[in-house]
Amino acid sequence: MKVRILVRLKPGVLDPQGRAVHHSLGSLGFDGVEDVRIGRMIEMDVADGTSDEALNKMCEQLLANMVIEDFAIEKLDGERAPA
Amino acid sequence: MAFKAAVITFPGSNCDRDMAVAIEAVSGAPAIRVWHGDADLPAGLDFIALPGGFSYGDYLRSGAMAAKSPILRAVVAAAERGVPVLGVCNGFQVLTESGLLPGALMRNAGQTFVCRTVELKVGNTSSLFTSGFSAAETLRVPVAHHDGNYFADAATLDELESADRVAFRYSDNPNGSLRDIAGVLSANGRVLGMMPHPERAIEPAAHASMGGTDGRRLFENVIGNLVAA
Hints:
Chain A is an alpha+beta fold. Chain A has helices at residues 16-27, 52-63; strands at 2-9, 40-45, 69-75. Chain A has a three-stranded antiparallel β-sheet, covered by helices on one side.
């Protein structure tokens, strides 16, 4: 089973990287960018029987820092390319 | 009995020798060097130090991998028994990632690596580490980091302040740390994490801009207190 995990800074936590990228987009002439927040995507291949509980624990114990980050788990089962 | 301190080395640590030299200069006893893959600490330790550097290449997050290494389980267990622990720079990041200290160290607000000597205001003056300082004084200690921007939620920050757990504050905040926090203590006051490098300020011969001896006083405080106890 393929799993995609998105780790993002919690709302309200200042994102200096996002702010710098936002500024750069503006200086490249891209108007209308309201905000930029930068996170991390982790893709994993896990055994088919892996429980949601186990995936949550992986995120809470290592993949995300719960002091500053939230995570979202996305299972990619249905996304296999047609043969 | 000789003072028994351990310095933990992870792949990517680069201030471990300086830390050992600082401890040895003050205690007069050799510091035991412990490798990250060891599952156990030497018995009967008086003190544990987590040095600066870039453990595991800062993969995932600074300090995150080291915080999950086997030796850290032993360090956490020792800290819970009351063995004093000092984490400097990457060591501070490891302490927050391991849960021994609250909060997190984020990318510097200015995005740049900051490497210079900063002025610190002494916060706490009653812990093992800080009892020799006075509340009014300032110290000069070098910083060198990219991820030193201390963050915790407002309730945690309030708790740290009301419980006198802010060990040091920056006079001129170099990294965006909330409430200018440069170092924090555990609830029992026996674990200290700080971004500035006291082990780089132990030689009077060094030029003032390169450090001086203010860092040595922190080691004199903690080792003196532990030897006297």
